[in-house]
Design a protein that fits this description.
Layout (H helix, E strand, L loop, with lengths): L1 H21 L7 H5 L5 E6 L7 E5 L2 E7 L8 E2 L5 E7 L5 E7 L6 E8 L6 E8 L10 E7 L6 E7 L12 E5 L3 E2 L7 E3 L2 E9 L5 E4 L3 E3 L4 E8 L11 E9 L2 E6 L4
Parallel strand pairs: 1-7, 9-17
Antiparallel strand pairs: 1-4, 2-3, 2-5, 5-6, 7-8, 9-12, 9-13, 10-11, 10-14, 14-15, 14-16, 17-18, 18-19
């Protein structure tokens, strides 16, 4: 039913979309929005304790020799039972794997993260159903906690220096190795504007990371990933930094948000 309604909306909106395209509108894939295009997959190297890695899908290496904080472009995968793996670069022995059944219209992210024991590698997976309205120009935002030294966090996306003492988190209760909103739920939607990100320990107002103000554009698609801080800070409780993966169609950029 959802796909049928979105297809009808797509037909009705074609004229509007043409206008948007002519005016520099969003880069969203229409097939993705209406749920007809092939599943899309991207990878993130979020483990500071391992060197460069390769990411593979069903035994075929798709992303090669990438370093820490690297985010790949989206690429199409088949909507069949899938095994994703991450290996040391050049190795055929996986460090970790994840099995899933991709669905047309969904976007997937595989993140190589520190394992539960603090040294091995795990491959975490986010299933994004991508339920964006075909006429929406709002930004899509999701967070992922890859900071094993900050195992549960809340994330606030607010106007710069806004008082968070009486407000709830924008994305709450992100456990280590998990997303908020959780995998299989859609991202949150916010208007473009100037914002600040603050990360707190879950259930408290104790800020462990505050970003400088930044601009979030309409139609942006952000994955906000918390990472352990570098050097000695990598093992210091609640010492974190924040990496933002920004999708522009299939193209990806990744940048670390400057701390306040």
């Amino acid at each position: 039913m959802k796909i049928q309604i979105r297809k009808i909306a797509a037909v009705l909106a074609l004229g509007s979309l043409a206008v948007l395209a002519g005016c520099g509108g969003g880069s969203d894939d229409i097939g993705q929005i209406i749920g007809t295009s092939s599943p899309q997959y991207r990878t993130v190297h979020a483990n500071p304790f391992i060197s460069n890695v390769d990411f593979a899908v069903n035994g075929t290496v798709k992303v090669t020799n990438v370093g820490f904080k690297n985010v790949s472009n989206y690429f199409g995968i088949d909507s069949t039972a899938t095994k994703a793996t991450v290996s040391n670069s050049g190795s055929t022995t996986p460090l970790a794997s994840a099995n899933f059944s991709p669905v047309n219209g969904h976007r997937y992210t595989g993140l190589a993260i520190v394992g539960a024991n603090g040294s091995a590698t795990s491959l975490a997976l986010i299933d994004d159903p991508y339920n964006k309205s075909i006429l929406s120009d709002k930004a899509r935002v999701r967070t992922f906690n890859a900071s094993y030294n900050a195992p549960n966090v809340d994330v606030y996306v607010t106007a710069p220096n806004a008082d968070i003492s009486t407000t709830g988190p924008t994305m709450g209760g992100a456990a280590y190795g998990a997303a908020s909103p959780v995998s299989t739920q859609d991202s949150i939607y916010v208007d473009g504007g100037t914002y600040q990100i603050r990360v707190t320990t879950a259930g408290t107002k104790t800020v462990i990371f505050a970003s400088q103000p930044f601009n979030l554009a309409n139609n942006a698609d952000w994955l906000i990933t918390t990472l352990p801080a570098g050097g000695v800070g990598a093992v210091t409780p609640n010492a974190i930094r924040v990496l933002v993966a920004q999708a522009n169609g299939a193209s990806q950029t990744a940048s670390e948000l400057p701390a306040q």
